[in-house]
Amino acid sequence: MCRHVAYVGPEVPLGAVLADPEHSLLRQSWAPRRQRYGTVNADGFGVGWYAEGDPVPGRYRRAGPIWGDLSLTDLARVIRTRALLAAIRDATMPGADQEAAAAPYAGGPWLFSHNGAVDGWPGSLAPLAGGLPAAEILSLEARNDSAFVWALVLNRLRSGCEEGQALTDTVLDVARASPGSRLNLLLTNGDTITATAWGDTLWYLARPGRGTVVAAEPYDDDPHWVEVPDRTLLVADRTDVLLTPLKEPEDTGRPGAGPVPVTPKESPA
Question: 84, 45 in Cβ contact below 8 A?
Answer without folding.
Answer: no
